[in-house]
């Protein structure tokens, strides 16, 4: 069995400080035996549109992608960098980047569902499409803990995405997030457990937590969930890490005894991209 790590952060506008915190968290997880780490959304930069425009890089190149690659090589550890601004043409995407233990970028996932909502929060309105363009493909990639299906934050509310990832062979779903305090308190755990149960996949959910600015507080509560929907480990509102063994014999037995995927009468038709 392989071990996976989940990182909970309180990222801000200082990218060097965020990188140092991410580095320390990965070093801790490596000591605990993890071969894969999952970082939250906006792990290296949690700021505003102007800051994202300033640090955005071309896919596969740029100083921050190089530094992440070097970190993975040094620790001999794979990483899902929850999201980072990438420049695609004249627009930005917010993208999950999977880097293997050799420092090779094996998969990119551009967030499909942008958070354009009005909710009872402060601020009450969020409009990600003012900064980013949505992606149009899914991503499944092999990792030391099994086939990963990548997703980001608001994606969690759209079960068809996860059904598509399962259909492509995903065994583990990664959810890198920065759920607001209001939406997180109401829906975070419920949605995560539902996605695990529906797909019979492990879920590694890495979240931002705490106060970021006067107007932005995130819920935290990063967790690891089994394919049966059990919360096996979680953090609360504090920064930190979780390290958990991923046992695919649990998945195999469950899928054999309850073959929900084979029983489904619906076919998901999304643009699929497998990096396996």
Describe the protein in words.
The chain is α/β, with parallel strands linked by helices and 276 residues long. It has a single domain, classed as 4-Layer Sandwich (Nitrilase/N-carbamoyl-D-aminoacid amidohydrolase), CATH 3.60.110. Helix content is 29%, strand content 33%. It contains 7 helices and 17 strands. The protein has a 7-stranded mixed β-sheet with strand order 15-14-11-10-9-8-17, with helices on one face. Strands 5-4-3-2-1-16 form a 6-stranded mixed β-sheet. α5 links the parallel β10 and β11. The longest helix has 19 residues. The radius of gyration is 17 Å and the shape is globular.
Could you list some keywords that capture this structure?
alpha/beta; 276 residues; Nitrilase/N-carbamoyl-D-aminoacid amidohydrolase; single chain; seven-stranded mixed beta sheet; 7 helices; globular
Share of residues in helices: 25-40%
The CATH topology is Nitrilase/N-carbamoyl-D-aminoacid amidohydrolase
Number of helical runs?
7
Task: Provide mean pLDDT, rounded.
Answer: 95
Q: Report the β-strand fraction as a percent range.
A: 25-35%
Q: Which shape, going by the Cα principal axes?
A: globular
Number of strands: 17
Task: Provide the CATH architecture.
Answer: 4-Layer Sandwich
Distance between the termini: 20 Å
Low-confidence stretches: none
- Rg calculated over all Cα atoms: 17 Å
Oligomeric composition of the shown chains = single chain
Widest sheet, order of strands = 15-14-11-10-9-8-17
